[in-house]
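Lecture notes, unit on protein representations.

Consider one protein chain, 140 amino acids long.
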Amino acid sequence: MLGVEVARSPIDSGAEGPDLTAIVGLAGAPTGVLGISCQEASAARIAARMLGSETPESKENAADALGEVCNMVAGSLKAGLSTSEDLCRLSAPTIISGKDYRVRPILNGERHEIFLDFEGQPIKMTLEIHRASNGAGAAG
């Protein structure tokens, strides 16, 4: 959708930490949270590519674009992780701006984290997932 190749980076190579994070929740089987974090400048580049322009028109466009990318990735993960459309639902994207926050991990969950290079800027993707043994998807 963006027409850009991203490369996986072995570690977080960004000098500055991310200041925008998009989060989409997965409810059901499995239960989890997908987060995509980057600097606002990277989100602005994502928005510009999505809108087919040189620069985004506003900071809101940058945040919305990051949320939309997170939603698309979560949809792909849902298709690969869930055996039935009815077993897993996605939340609407939530955007967090700022650097001073903490995310509490899911109890007994698996955490997967990768770093990507997007036009020379780091993007972090984090998936925290809990697979209930009874198929109900309850965290615990």
